[in-house]
What does this fold into?
Amino acid sequence: MSKSRKIDNVIRIVSKKKPQTDFKYWQSQPYEKRLAIVEEIRNEYHNGNKQRLQRVFRIIKRTQS
It folds into this structure.
């Protein structure tokens, strides 16, 4: 059920003196689209991290001297 996502080409000219954020863009999007993107990012994160390092624990008994 993998949907291919279309990325729109957008060019903006911005001033380096004034920091820009994506907040206005995401606030202008409907909540359904915002939620869908968050879900997609979550799925990519969880499905992309299947291979992990194996944890090995060793118990060492210490004697007091």
Summary: Residues 6 and 22 are 19 Å apart (CA to CA).
